[in-house]
Amino acid sequence: MMKNYLPVRTTCFNFDYTIMVRIEREKAGNLVSTYVSDKLTKEDYDKILPALQQTVNEWDGVRWYFEMRDFSGWEPIAALRDLKFDIEHANELTKIAMVGTQKWQEWLTKAMKPFTSAEVRFFDLLEREEALRWIKS
Questions:
Q1: Where would I find the H helices in 23-127?
Q2: Mean pLDDT in the chain?
Q3: Interatomic CA distance for residues 41 and 136, integer angstroms
Q4: What is the pTM of this model?
């Protein structure tokens, strides 16, 4: 199975905590996996969105796994860019698995459903293996 790793940002604070955004692409199953922590910025989206755009241009029926660890959300401009991408590509995504630990992340997942034709589900981080099985099925 071939994976393409697209590192977006890694920054260390206090030498013991890493903020990271990582994107992986697996052609087998048309799967894009995004792993985030801290807060997503405009600069993150300057790198994330071209990678996602390339993926939806190259593959039919993209599945998106989005895992949030110690994630506090988006800067306002990043949130708008994310929403715009999601609406523009609503019919190109077939499944979206949102994985996190916070109640607001689960609510956000439910709020996404009217804006996409993709099947969208939230999983607790403790259920990440189940989420990966589901997104690949």
A1: 42-58, 76-88, 103-112
A2: 84
A3: 28
A4: 0.83
